[in-house]
Design goal:
The protein is an alpha+beta fold and 118 residues long. The chain is built from 4 helices and 6 strands. Strand 2 and strand 3 form a beta hairpin.
């Protein structure tokens, strides 16, 4: 069961074993989002978070990434592109199918949106 929390320009997807962050629009910048850091701190989260930046980067190779969170802030220079994407893509695809209104604030064209929600 997924639990979703809005935080700044992002959504946090909480699962039993993983936490994912999804960009809420094309302006999302993870390192500058104070509301996201605050929410993760409130949740007591520490560790690596997987990211889906679809609405900001489109379907490019840097769509999926990860970054470490130390309980208060994102760890500088810990971000990287994730190549093993099956689990994060499965989870975030479900999220986007339920929240198609978010595509209005993305860089995606109609063809890309259709491929994501199919």
């Amino acid at each position: 069961m997924h639990q979703y929390k809005a935080a700044g320009n992002f959504f946090i997807i909480l699962e039993e074993k993983e936490t994912y962050i999804v960009a809420a629009n094309y302006e999302s910048v993870i390192s500058k989002d104070k509301a996201l850091k605050t929410e993760l701190s409130k949740l007591g989260y520490k560790g690596t978070i997987e990211l889906d930046m679809l609405l900001k980067t489109g379907t490019s190779k840097n769509r999926f990434g990860s970054i470490d969170f130390d309980g208060k802030k994102f760890v500088r220079n810990s971000s990287k592109i994730v190549e093993e994407i099956s689990e994060i893509k499965k989870t975030t695809s479900k999220f986007f199918k339920q929240h198609t209104e978010l595509f209005q604030n993305s860089i995606l064209n109609t063809t890309q949106i259709t491929s994501v929600i199919q």
